Here is the input.
Amino acid sequence: MVIKTAVIGLGIMGQRMLEHMEQHPEFEVVGIWDPEAGACQAAQRYAPGAVVATDAISAIEIADLVYLACPPAPRKAYALAAAAQDKAVFLEKPLGINVEESLDLVHQLETYGVPCAVNFTQAAGAALTDISAAAKDGTLGVLQGVDIIVTYPHWPRAWQQAADWLRLRKEGGMTREVISHFLFVSLRILGPLELVWAQPDYPAQSDLCETHVAARLANQAGLPVTILGSVGGAQPDRQEVTIKGSKTSRRITDFYRDAVSSGQNFEPIAAEPHNPRATSLKAQLDDLVLLLAGKPNRLATLEEALHVQILIETILKNHPTN
Here is the structure.
């Protein structure tokens, strides 16, 4: 039987996931909803058979799985509404923006006992799976730490302009949207992390998100995770996380390009997939099927997502003017 799915939030990520759910043999999108009528109309081209619901609750009622791609603020209410109806929940990251609210969300979802996961897109990917194995079997040697570098000429990026909330300090910014992905990778490799220090910089307009961030975190053994993020200047996007070992190091660029170095230039591990985004989303959906079947899977747990959120929000608030 296919997994009847409702998609709440039909912006960029919602439409992408909707498209790939419709291509996956295990999923059927039966209901969609977004407060913007234009977003609903645009999404219908991917799932013409789905019901355009009058509100989020109506979409939730007709599904077995609810995928929440809406902005962070309303996500808790929709997740709990779904869980109260015994629906499985797949949430976009970040888990939230208010730590106390997210602590309560995780507690309530665990009490309901429905299958839940958070969409950190590298979780089921080949790169993180292979690097995790290499870290455990000694291929990397002794782990030395992780470096995260994220730089952009503009934020939000050109393809994100329709999601206006991404430029605002309340819910948006590159630290929540991108650096969180690489902190999740670091968490999977190094285990729980604690913030050592952080310095985010904000523009003069008080409602806008950070333009620069630097931070240092460490795991329980003291291994460092170093973060550098910046916006501005004529440059291409740069998104990379390097897992450093005494024998070899691995670098993931743009979420999926996996390369290795033993001291020389980083060399690709394998040929790039024909459609990296499709490959990544299919891997996430394959593991989502496993989650719903009660089987082991690689998706990000609520606890992992909460840990990442706590780190991110602490970084963003660690500023003299906050």
Remarks:
- The chain has two domains: 3-114, 126-272+301-317.
